[in-house]
Design a protein that fits this description.
By secondary structure, the protein is of the alpha/beta class. It is about 50% helix and about 10% strand. Strands 3-2-1-4-5 form a five-stranded mixed β-sheet. Helix 6 crosses helix 7.
Length: about 260
């Protein structure tokens, strides 16, 4: 039987129209181009297997809640507790039971392009989601911890249907309308919390990009309001903007 060209074999790999029997036969093909294609294919399969296993691991809290009779499980997370400027943003999301998004993880571990892509997918596929933004003035008024809790409670009220159980990244909340769990590093352990972390971070990053256009000197588009050297230098040189948190020491010290 005449060997197929490497270009044809490459197209078959890319279209995933090769079965394992044929791939096994290809391994005896001595052409370097064919062997390279096989190596790339096997690396891709190993990566997919690792993503599948990680997604399964991160679904354990949800699966346990389903087993306990819960139907609507919300994940909740926030973005922006540490920065010197801008709002704190919380998000909550209820994913469908059959939701699958390989690569879903803590938003900080994903690049910007992937976060934006997942942001759109999560909003489209979610049973329900809520996003709450608390500005720097409210943060200064009540402190960042209380502002974060306020944002989280606001997201819960946006969910329809209401959740039976809430998985929260690290923060313990009282007086919730249902049972809840505070999970340390939950955005790395729960797909629902990871999804919420993406909604919160992308929303906040977009807001900080807008603020950067208004006040470019502080570098908000790159530092997202965190206290980088360039940001601190600009605080010393130019003073504060209307979006800085005056209750934070580096900002308070820069008030002229």
């Amino acid at each position: 039987m005449e060997k197929q060209s490497i270009a044809v074999i490459k197209q078959l790999f890319e279209s995933e129209k090769l079965d394992e029997t044929y791939i096994k036969e290809l391994k005896s093909d001595e052409r370097k181009g064919v062997q390279k294609l096989i190596e790339q294919y096997e690396r891709k399969k190993l990566k997919e297997k690792a993503l599948e296993e990680n997604f399964l691991r991160m679904s354990q809290y949800e699966q346990r809640s389903y087993a306990n009779g819960c139907q609507y499980i919300a994940g909740m997370d926030e973005a922006g507790r540490g920065p010197l400027a801008g709002p704190v943003v919380a998000a909550a999301v209820i994913l469908p039971r059959d939701f699958k998004l390989l690569g879903l993880n803590d938003s900080k571990q994903l690049n910007e392009e992937t976060r934006e892509k997942f942001f759109t997918i999560i909003k489209e596929k979610a049973v329900s989601y809520g996003i709450s933004i608390i500005d720097n003035q409210k943060i200064d008024q009540v402190n960042i911890y209380e502002a974060t809790k306020l944002a989280m409670f606001n997201t819960i009220r946006q969910l329809d249907p209401a959740p039976d159980h809430i998985l929260i990244d690290a923060v313990s909340l009282n007086r919730l309308p249902c049972t809840s769990e505070a999970i340390t590093k939950g955005d790395q352990k729960s797909i629902s919390i990871a999804a919420a972390s993406i909604l919160a971070k992308v929303t906040r990053d977009n807001l900080m990009n807008d603020l950067d256009k208004e006040y470019p000197a502080y570098g908000f588009a790159s530092n997202m309001g965190y206290g980088t050297k360039q940001h601190l230098d600009m605080l010393t040189e130019q003073g504060i903007s209307p979006y800085h948190r005056k209750s934070y020491a580096p900002v308070r010290n820069a008030i002229k």
